[in-house]
Amino acid sequence: xxxxxxxxxxxxxxxxxxxxxxxxxxxxxxxxxxxxxxxxxxxxxxxxxxxxxxxxxxxxxxxxxxxxxxxxxxxxxxxxxxxxxxxxxxxxxxxxxxxxxxxxxxxxxxxxxxxxxxxxxxxxxxxxxxxxxxxxxxxxxxxxxxxxxxxxxxxxxxxxxxxxxxxxxxxxxxxxxxxxxxxxxxxxxxxxxxxxxxxxxxxxxxxxxxxxxxxxxxxxxxxxxxxxxxxxxxxxxxxxxxxxxxxxxxxxxxxxxxxxxxxxxxxxxxxxxxxxxxxxxxxxxxxxxx
Amino acid sequence: xxxxxxxxxxxxxxxxxxxxxxxxxxxxxxxxxxxxxxxxxxxxxxxxxxxxxxxxxxxxxxxxxxxxxxxxxxxxxxxxxxxxxxxxxxxxxxxxxxxxxxxxxxxxxxxxxxxxxxxxxxxxxxxxxxxxxxxxxxxxxxxxxxxxxxxxxxxxxxxxxxxxxxx
Lengths: 290, 167
Prior knowledge:
heterodimer; A: mainly beta; Immunoglobulin-like; five-stranded mixed sheet; 24 strands; disordered N terminus; B: alpha+beta; Nuclear Transport Factor 2, Chain: A; six-stranded mixed sheet; 3 helices; 6 strands; 40% strand
């Protein structure tokens, strides 16, 4: 390209990105917008001493300068995204402009909220993850970005959802899988990732079943190994309730699971009905006759 | 979703008092435009907006008096750290700033699935004064589009992200 034409185009492009603020005997030329942390310059015009203020709730800069000078701000000077008021004052006049500092384009940090930390297996959309995307200066990146949510289950299966953020935020829902154990839940954007650990625990008992046999004057009641509907062993300590009803009398015993089963001895009563339950799950029922 | 009737009520309730005079900021609350699976109850939305508007009063007082402790009730995390840094810078430069919010046009845009954050957009109009050694340097009327993230604390919502973005 012709070098003169290139210079003209460059000059026009620069003019659209810059603004000029005037006051009596002084003015300044400043960029309309810069990226957080990048270097920039503000050109002053006039003569005499002046002070430059760059002001926003999130950050403030002040610099004494001679009018006619260019104030050069090194990279890392203005790091907080915001809408800044820029004021150039001398002893006789003041002029104002505004400067937008935009978040950096490169994500550096993900604020990742994953819930719950522990849940039963086999729940549809039981796990949720929400992220906010930040740059290296902890500015929220509000331009759309694609987040990869990955949930790896103990059995090796992987769920992956791609989500485009809106106003810096994105979310997803994942299913808990059939196997108990520890899931790894990762939110990833580019080289940046954050990991959360989700514990999948067995669900409610499924197909609860007991057997009974007489031992002397007592009835020995024992459950089969208690498992959930996906075959995961229900943890020891889970309460199993045995209920014996006879002649209008009812006896109830709560027993914690030990080594996967629950067992108890109850009085032998001819004509008794014995049932077993765990939480809201009912097991089988036995009618006992001598 | 916030319907029209509550919207009018919110406008009445959420008139914020200016610390510099009797003028109050006008507040308009747009119906929520939520992404996310969690329903936003009216009371939750009202509480978040009430606490956010209150945070402008804290911000204004803190930056005017250069007292970071005034931020404690309403700000947390990154927002609090950045505002605290601003106060340190203002002190070192011998300046203080006076922000007076004049109008808010608010919309809640995100309620995270676990209920631990609310994001809102505020098209805010405000006045800012810059004072150097207690002498007024400039007074300007500004407008900005703020993105705000609030998180729940013990009894209120606190501002965790407070950031103006280009309109």
